[in-house]
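retry 2 of 3: previous attempt timed out while embedding EPZ. Reduced batch size to 1 and resubmitted. Inputs unchanged:
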Amino acid sequence: MEKYVIHGGKPLRGSVEISGAKNAAVAIIPAALMVHGVCRLENLPEISDTDTLLHILTYLGAKVNMINRTTVELDCTHVQMDILPERMWALTRKIRASYYLIGAMLGRFGKARTTMPGGCNFGLRPIDQHIKGLTALGAEMDVSGGFITASAGDGRLKGTTIYLDKVSVGATINIMIAAATAEGRTVIENVAREPHIVDLANFLNSMGADVRGAGTDVIKIRGVSQLHGGTYTLIPDQIEAGTYMAAVAAAGGAVRVSNVIPKHLECISSKLREMNVEVEEGDDYVLVRRDGPLHQVNLKTMPYPGFPTDMQPQMAAVLCCAPGDSIVTEGVWANGRFRYVGELKKMGAQIEVEDQSAFVHGVDHLTGAVVKACDLRAGAAVVIAGLAAGGVTEVEDITYIERGYQDLVGKFRALGADIQCVQIPEDRPANWNAG
Ligand code: EPZ
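retry 2 succeeded.
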């Protein structure tokens, strides 16, 4: 087992390069299952979720050729569904995005089978909108025994109009993938508009699909018989970029966050400016500076283009040291996703959670402690807190963090942070303090 050891209190300076978008990659890799021919994906993030999905495709018979750390050539021409190897299920249970295999398998083979997905555990994560959309396309869906099984009557889905009851990134993605090769026209109303939704639509279109309207609340798809090979470069990760911007806000300093699409960061930049953080936008970078006191703010997460829920824990960590009282309200996840609060309190933060809001009372400084990454973004939050805190912070359960952040330690070290990844000696209790 490994953990991060952070000696905090040092301002961040220099430049950080943002990697490909995790939530685009975990949709595009399953979608590549539908491509007959070689599909070259560039700017893939080098994270464990990408590895897991590529392994799953290998089990299905895909040829996976890593050209370099962030470029892969996939050939799914000869993928079969007849044998779904048992050992595949250990991987599909690990990650949330494995359920995109349903849309891809249905779109390719007219049938699908996979386990219920895994992913960050912040309470209930229903899939009723996925079921609703795929059923509307003509699939018979069965969710039982920990598995999701689906089949299209005569082997091909039929286009239709679907109105989502709830704005759902996952349901929008799953239905879009399946509808790409359905017979006829599909209209999906009340869809998610996140950058990774647009990225998936652009990927599908570059492989011969006909998807229009991604990024608005209505997506229209004309089904094609099959997708052909091609090359696609993923967008940079909006949330990784936001995480580094929040880290500068918390620890202070001046950092150029490069390889971003500033438009995708507008909500984050605007909120940071309210907090007395300077954010200057370039073509493909933002310059983030903070050397004065932080200002308290209130924020509420909403579907894109609102403030992203995946930045909620990180911003709460920053606000721990903003003088005054801030309110952080979760507007996307019903169960709040506030598991990180207990960890920040170990560092001296004054936060109380009530219903969907965290009430943060700013303190002069945080103090290093032994804390855990409760999920991916909660892990990012405690790293940010550790970078700002005085003393030593040890972050355990870092596998969550490594699912979604490429080379987090290397990137922060290049910005002057004193952070390292160390092995927890087996013969000592996991919470042994490295001193
Ligand atoms: C995706 O999760 C992301 N994960 C999440 O990011 C992100 O928090 C979320 O979108 C919202 O932006 C991936 O892309 C792999 P949803 P997803 O379906 O698709 C409810 C991260 O940190 N809902 O948009 O599971 C649901 O309960 C991760 O990178 C239904 O009610 O989220 C939630 O309240 C964490 N029925 C809301 O919709 C459904 O069928 C949004 O969920 C589906 C969702």
